[in-house]
# Entry
Amino acid sequence: MKRLLCVVALMAATAVGATDNVLLIQMQPGGGYRVWHTEGENLITDDEAMALEATAKPGGGEEMQTSVGPARAYEVGESVTISLPAARNDNAVLIDRDDCNHLRLWHAAGATKLSDDQITDIVMSALPGGGKRITVGGYYVKAYTTKLGVMAALWNAAKK
# Structure
């Protein structure tokens, strides 16, 4: 598991300043997917996220004022989701922690737009240690199964 996290972190680090990124894909009850992005337009701080995380309850914790407006944290299974009702598109953040308890924030909206068929291809390719590299649209993708869903590292496919 630690090796997986290092590989994903390395891939994410090489994506800085490019269109490359890492996605977290979660299957939804009744079908469909929820896609979380490593980069989003809201700039909630780690300190704000941790303060909200401490108040999270299944029905929602206390509303707190943050740098991006009012926010409320919800305990959802093994994770916490922060609702940001004043944000336009990126109105939710999923809190995740790695094996070292380091905070990772996943954003509800991001620049990468994939079709349901493309997301299905990614999910089907995922394995615990990383599935076979596939090409989806203009990206190469390597997908991993995790406790929260499928983590997919995307980077620009070489132009032929």
In short: The chain has two domains: 1-37+114-160, 40-109. The first strand starts at residue 21 and ends at 27. The helical segments are 2-14, 46-55, 116-125. The two ends are 34 Å apart (CA to CA).
